[in-house]
Amino acid sequence: MSDVTTAEFNEDGKYIRKIRSFVLREGRLTKGQSQAIEAHWPAMGLDYTPQPLDLTQVFGRNADTVLEIGFGMGASLVQMASAAPEQNFIGIEVHKPGVGACLADAGEAKVTNLRVYHHDAMEVLEHSIADGSLARLQLFFPDPWHKKRHHKRRIVQPEFVQLVRRKLKVGGVFHMATDWENYSEHMLEVMNAAEGYKNQSPTGTVVERPEHRPLTKFEARGHRLGHGVWDIMFERTA
Question: What is the pLDDT of residues 168-224, one digit of tens each?
Fold first, then answer.
């Protein structure tokens, strides 16, 4: 399970914009991860700037762009990019070993449609992603903050989902997944109350895992143990 972002939220679920709002988590890099960053960052790494990216320039083409917040070690993100060469993919992760592992997998898979940030997700989303530019935003297995008194720290809050909506095209999709049923209920509660979204579930609840989201090793093990995973997909309507 990945740390989505090191950003903090107050008890009202508001993002706290501190002077130094995040700390890059260096971690202990393996030799392979370090070599992958050195080899592949020039082609696939994105350095944070507070100006919106020109996606056509970054990818050298016009294509639907998918953004994933908190990609962990990046295995499923690389699988998705490899399986959908017609789309652009951007991943954000604060944990440097995860960035290294993702770049190593991407280099081995020879994907050319993936770019990564080693930066705080909230800053990238707010400042570096142009409004109306994303076909899909993915938030998979964020920190569940499972103690009730910590629920307000969850990233899925009214302010955040409106920021996501602003970045999505009309018709674009906010795709969440969690292995905590209580968090899925919280996600649905926030999203059902959010202006400008429509649930893609025909039952108004969760959806079956779509083909574009690979089954992770962690998730497959959970299935064997009888653990559930809940996918939630909401489309921007306005």
Answer: 999 999 999 999 999 999 999 999 999 999 999 999 999 999 999 999 877 877 777
Phi, psi dihedrals of residue 168, rounded to the nearest 5°: -75, 150
* pTM, to two decimals: 0.89
DSSP assignment string, 75-143: HHHHHHHHH-TTSEEEEE-SBHHHHHHHHHHHHHHT-SSEEEE-S-HHHIIIIIS-TT-EEEEEEES--
Residue 181, exposed/middle/buried by CB under 10 A (0-12, 13-18, 19+)? Answer: middle
Q: Are 197 and 174 in contact (CB under 8 A)?
A: yes
64 labelled catalytic: no
Residue of 120, 143, 179, 231 marked active site? 143
Q: Does 18 score more than 90 pLDDT?
A: no
Edge-first strand listing for the sheet containing 65-69:
45-46, 114-117, 88-92, 65-69, 134-140, 168-178, 230-236, 197-199
